[in-house]
Design goal:
By secondary structure, this protein is of the alpha+beta class. The protein has 2 domains: 163 residues, Aminotransferase class 4, branched-chain amino acid transferase, N-terminal domain (D-amino Acid Aminotransferase, Chain A, domain 1); 167 residues, D-amino Acid Aminotransferase, Chain A, domain 2, CATH 3.20.10. 26% of the residues lie in helices and 29% in strands. It is built from 8 helices and 18 strands. Strands 1, 2, 3, 4, 5, 6, 7, 8 and 18 form a 9-stranded mixed β-sheet that branches. Strands 9, 10, 11, 12, 13, 14, 15, 16 and 17 form a 9-stranded mixed β-sheet that branches. Strand 15 and strand 16 form a beta hairpin. Helix 3 crosses helix 4. It starts with 10 loop residues before the first strand and ends with a strand. It binds pyridoxal-5'-phosphate (PLP). The site of pyridoxal-5'-phosphate (PLP) has 13 residues, from helix 6.
């Protein structure tokens, strides 16, 4: 559906910036997703004009007609990646082309237009060119980047929209774990699924998250921070968490096991990167169907010693327990060795203190 030919030129409209003292106060303790930078990217698309009107504009509310298609049938997709400040002051990001490609895979499934990957990466550069001062420099801190696309044709009929808008907003993020990495408890959802066969599980769309919120509330009511979803058909093989992929560590740290991408599981870039790092270390990586029974028996026999979830926001979250109405699998109250060392290697590359042997980092702004 992309009709883009020549590269898009961005226009930049300067915002009234937040005073430096206020910005610095936010960057001292940014939290997650609470504060936004001074600017945002916006690019329009229509079926007749293709992508046009590429802009960096002041961050602010969108004007949407109440009939705008995204508000009715949920035609929305998003991405998530981070910008990191290195010791010399330069700003870098991690594998942004992978996010650009995945955005297009999601776009296909949700019948939204594809955006050229070069335009996606250029849009990130344009935003960082004006908002680089918003990238925090504290340990485990970053600027979280949220590209997203909405259908915005004003029309109530049920068909894919003929107008869309791509935006990028950015939000400074502090350490996900304050006071050290601690294992979380996750809740096994036995009543709800995240995605069905042939559904939208592989697309990074808001609708998948909408359907995960009720089970997420159920998890919270049971003292758990996250939900684990099972395959809707087999009801015993593991898919993933609401917004993170799952890994198990087995055979005295020699094997990494993760559910194979089966059409329902989101293709996590953290997941793919950890598989590569593990292979580089000489670990055996098994991408295959994994059942809860295998996890339960493996934990009991001592074959499976660690479990963790992964995604851009929290990088790697150790799992301390899997709880369900009928049983609990205890994995320990401290993060495992493999979990911590993979986490240190990946975050080290991202923050520029570990050599980037895989060529994953892209520099967005110069040293200063
Ligand atoms: C974004 C996302 C992930 C993690 O993907 P990363 O590219 O590693 O951030 C995992 N599962 C779901 C459902 C997601 O939306």
């Amino acid at each position: 559906m992309s009709t883009q030919t020549a590269p898009l030129a961005f226009s930049v409209t300067e915002a009234t910036r937040l005073p430096v003292a206020e910005r610095d106060a936010i960057l001292q303790s940014p939290g997650f997703g609470d504060h936004f930078t001074d600017h945002m990217v916006s690019i329009d698309w229509s079926i007749t004009e293709g992508w046009h009107n590429a802009e960096v504009i002041p961050y602010g509310p969108l004007q949407l007609d109440p009939a705008s298609s995204v508000l009715h049938y949920g035609q929305e997709i998003f991405e998530g990646l981070k910008a990191y400040r290195h010791a010399d002051g330069s700003v870098w990001t991690f594998r942004p082309e992978e996010n650009g490609k995945r955005l297009n895979e999601s776009a296909k499934r949700i019948a939204l237009p594809e955006l050229p990957v070069e335009t996606f990466v250029e849009a990130l550069r344009q935003l960082l060119a004006v908002d680089a001062d918003w990238v925090p420099s504290g340990e485990d801190s970053s600027l979280y980047l949220r590209p997203f696309m909405i259908a915005n044709e004003n029309f109530l009929g049920v068909r894919s929209a003929h107008k869309a808008r791509f935006l990028i907003i950015a939000s400074p993020a502090g350490p996900y774990f304050t006071g050290g990495v601690k294992p979380v408890s996750i809740w096994l959802s036995t009543e709800y699924s995240r995605a069905g066969h042939g559904g939208t599980g592989e697309a990074k769309c808001g609708g998948n998250y909408a359907s995960s919120l009720l089970p997420q509330n159920e998890a919270a009511a049971n003292g758990c921070q996250q939900v684990l979803f099972l395959d809707a058909k087999t009801e015993d093989t593991i898919d993933e968490l609401g917004g993170m992929n799952l890994f198990l560590v087995a055979d005295a740290g020699k094997t990494l096991i993760t559910p194979a991408l089966n059409g329902n599981i989101l293709h996590g870039i953290t997941r793919a990167s950890l598989i590569q790092l593990a292979k580089n270390r000489g670990m055996a990586v098994e991408e295959r169907a994994v059942t809860v029974s295998e996890w339960r028996e493996g934990a009991a026999s001592g074959r499976i010693t660690e479990a963790f979830a992964c995604g851009t926001a929290a990088v790697i979250t150790p799992i301390g327990a899997l709880k369900s109405p009928d049983f609990t699998i205890e994995m320990g109250t401290e993060p495992g060795e493999v979990t911590l060392s993979l986490r240190a290697e990946l975050t080290g590359m991202q923050t520029g203190v570990v050599a980037d042997e895989n060529g994953w980092m892209l520099q967005l702004t110069e040293a200063k």
